[in-house]
Amino acid sequence: MSMSFAMNVLETLALLFAFSVGTVVLIALILFVLDRRQTEDAIRRNYPVIGRFRHLFSTLGEFFRQYFFAMDREEMPFNRAQREWVKRAGEGQGNTVAFGSTRNLNVVGTPIFANAAFPPLDDHATHAKPLVIGPDCAHPFEAPSFFNISGMSYGAISKPAVTALSGGAAKAGIWLNTGEGGLSEFHLKGGCDIVFQIGTAKYGVRDEHGTLSPEKLRAVASHDAVRMFEIKLAQGAKPGKGGILPGAKVTPEIAKIRGIAEGADSLSPNRHPDVANWEDLIQMIQTIRDITGKPVGIKTVIGAELAMQEFFDCISRHGPQSAPDFITIDGGEGGTGAAPMPLIDLVGMSIREALPLVADLRDAAGLKDRIRLVASGKLVNPGDVAWALAAGADFVTSARGFMFSLGCIQALKCNKNTCPTGITTHDRRFQQGLVVEDKVERVAAYAKGIVKEVEVIAHSVGAAEPRGLTRTHVRLMTDSGRSIVMSELYPPTAPLSVAAQ
Ligand SMILES: Cc1cc2nc3c(=O)[nH]c(=O)nc-3n(C[C@H](O)[C@H](O)[C@H](O)COP(=O)(O)O)c2cc1C
């Protein structure tokens, strides 16, 4: 009985095996014929069936590279060492490392901070103080922190992500920039300071014709939490191109906040239609400042020194009261939710070059105390932020640094509504992974971690506090293998004459 039962089982298994092998061979044969006959893919035509594995492995490589193959300092846009620093800071873990640096210090441009022979004793070191922006406005803003959150619109990032950023920003005493998608209840939820960005489509403050609505502007400014307004001319990842929010991410709520159609791609103009030159811009700054009574700045990417010189010349003609209260300089290496690859890769000066250039032009125009400089562009670790303060920035902002603190794994899917960490998707399945209460703590801890370690660098070079950092404290590696003091490489410049160019 038991013998015949065992034989039956064996026979069934043998049949199943033969059937499975037969099915696999049959499918392979069908795929072979399909691949040979199709015309659009040369690899599959020349190598039927096995050519399909190329696509599979390329896709899997995207996921596994960062775990198994890439070295600590290898990946782009951010390597593992940079991401891990943010993660540890966000978790409130001690950010010490062991044995020695894994950074190659011979790469041209690497900043090396010049340690002081006798740094201040710990009890003489001080913290960075708040700094006033727009002192002559009806409502100046005394910004508590030099490190803040850069613009990311509600739309590009999700409801829980905005809520967590807002709560974390309030906890750390830093500002949150809305990005160009308007002001939502989630920005306001945490009670942080807010910078309202006016993008080229003027989402949130536009009338039915798409032009600036004084009533809506007044309504936004009436929120105490809204401290400043930023006119976005351009962002580093896509200068000359407007915002791009794929239709899949335009939910009914986002459509309502922006004043656009649900489910349709949200494409903003490539520049403000009503700002064609510096004169127009100065006029717009003045209008917004008059209506809101709050500091007004601009955000741009630097393409040419001459253009910025013309801007400062224009301000000089109109007087310092006409100046923007701050200028945010975004580096060409800046991030985005979606942009064409040539723009993301190749258009716009790097922040490493643009920041000292604009700082020098501003100082030469005698506007150092009038216009605050805000810098962004892959400034996500303490060394980057300290470099920016030394180069001439008054403030530093980051977008992707804070995304990492929210749990971003650099899956590079921000444009697809399938972000696996729930940060840049409106799919609730993914959003449930982003637990706001936990991320609020991480956002705050990351911001505080940056401030603390920039203070450590400042004290090590002999500056009492971070804003005491200057170009004499930084050496930049050159291609000769020797480093050179930054103040020698970027000496302050005299104003350029427009006529002389
Ligand atoms: C998902 C995402 C959305 C963004 N949305 C905006 C935006 O609405 N307006 C803007 O001026 N910049 C936007 N940016 C650019 C950032 O504000 C910032 O300027 C740039 O990413 C550089 O900072 P980072 O290197 O720290 O990310 C966005 C960036 C990301 C990653």
Ligands present:
flavin mononucleotide
Strand content: 5-15%
Structural class: alpha/beta
Low-pLDDT windows of residues: 496-501
Order of strands, widest sheet: 4-13-12-11-10-7-6-5
The main pleated sheet reads as:
8 strands, parallel
* N-C termini distance: 102 Å
Net shape: globular
Radius of gyration from the CA trace?
27 Å
Structure characterization notes:
The protein has 501 residues and is α/β, with parallel strands linked by helices. It contains 17 helices and 15 strands. The strands form four sheets. Strands 4-13-12-11-10-7-6-5 form an eight-stranded parallel β-sheet. A three-stranded antiparallel β-sheet has the order 1-14-15. Helix 13 links the parallel strand 12 and strand 13. Helix 13 packs across helix 16. The longest helix is centred in the N-terminal third of the chain and has 36 residues. The C terminus is likely disordered. The site of flavin mononucleotide has 29 residues, from helix 14. Flavin mononucleotide binds next to helix 14.
Quick summary of this structure?
The chain is an alpha/beta fold. The protein has 17 helices and 15 strands.
What distinguishing features does this structure have?
disordered C terminus; 15 strands; 12% strand; globular; alpha/beta; 8-stranded parallel sheet
Lay out the secondary structure.
Blueprint: H1 2-37, H2 42-46, H3 52-69, H4 80-90, E1 111-113, E2 131-133, E3 141-143, E4 147-149, H5 159-172, E5 175-177, H6 185-189, E6 193-198, H7 214-221, E7 226-232, E8 244-245, H8 252-258, E9 266-267, H9 278-292, E10 296-300, H10 305-318, E11 326-330, H11 341-346, H12 351-364, E12 372-376, H13 382-391, E13 395-398, H14 400-405, H15 428-431, H16 436-461, E14 474-477, E15 483-485, H17 486-489
Parallel strand pairs: 4-13, 5-6, 6-7, 7-10, 10-11, 11-12, 12-13
Antiparallel strand pairs: 1-14, 2-3, 8-9, 14-15
Helix pairs in contact: 4-16, 5-16, 10-12, 13-16
This protein binds flavin mononucleotide (FMN).
